Amino acid sequence: MNNVGDMMNDATDIQAEPRADTPAPTTDTLKMTARNVDVFYGAKQAIDNVSIDIGMENVTAFIGPSGCGKSTFLRCLNRMNDTIPIARVTGQIELDEHDIYDPSMDVVQLRARVGMVFQKPNPFPKSIFENVAYGPRIHGLATSKAELDEIVEKSLIRAGLFEEVKDRLNDSGTALSGGQQQRLCIARAIAVDPEVILMDEPCSALDPIATAKIEELINDLRGKYAIVIVTHNMQQAARVSQRTAFFHLGTLVEYGETSDLFTNPSQDRTKDYITGRYG
Ligand SMILES: Nc1ncnc2c1ncn2[C@@H]1O[C@H](COP(=O)(O)OP(=O)(O)O)[C@@H](O)[C@H]1O
Ligand SMILES: [Mg+2]
User: Fold this and answer.
1) Which atom of ligand 1 is least distant from the CA of 201?
2) Angle at the Cα of 209 (from 187 to 196), degrees rounded to 5?
3) Global pTM value
4) Domain count within the chain
5) Which of 17, 43, 62, 165 has the most Cβ atoms closer than 10 angstroms to its Cβ?
6) Which residue of 40, 66, 72 sits with most ligand 1 atoms within 8 Å of its CB, as the best mutation to test the pocket?
């Protein structure tokens, strides 16, 4: 696709000279931008000069072999790396043109705006209701019990779980099946009205049917939230995303439209990966 390269040249505010293999901006409304991001764990560099634009309307997939830095980079986007003492992040990351690493940024607020769903479903050891109500309660999003009930119900509906749990909202969230637990975690993220949802291999612990449900859900949520999904499953990336970023050894090798990247990659390393030469 020609205009991807053209848009790259148009990209403003890129401080360092963009390399040939750095990102093409998405064509949709910009939600997040990363520029020249490095991440170190102690002396070891895990992310090397990554710049990427995350759009609002499309689902963005991060793919690449295990250990290439997908999770590390994803965690930069809502400052989850702050919780890892030896991790150090440099470069610039903006959400709606505001630097999320600015000292004035409220990290708790940021993580509500940029929610996260993890590889292993991790509901709180609380009721289904409380799992979803917890965030709205600490963020003061409801002024009455009725309002809180409504937020919980809406979030569960949106996460495609309500019908399955509506008669047992007081049962423990941890008693649900893996797929239901993952949708509960998505409902929990949705409940605080996020703008971006980050998913780190959300289906890797699920069976194919539960996986299909999550993929369907991602399609339903597309456009309502900016969605970034890490997956080591290329078929999944092809099914759920419109933009794909290929990472290798801590660098962003190629970023473009999913259909282009899988059918006509511009970089040899991408081609080798998608044809299964390594992974
Ligand atoms: N908490 C951590 N402490 C030290 N090194 C880490 C930590 N997390 C990840 N790494 C290292 O950073 C690199 C990238 O890891 P990761 O982001 O988990 O890759 P991916 O998600 O693509 O599998 C790997 O070399 C990994 O060992
Ligand atoms: Mg990972």
Assistant:
1) 21
2) 30
3) 0.91
4) 1
5) 62
6) 72
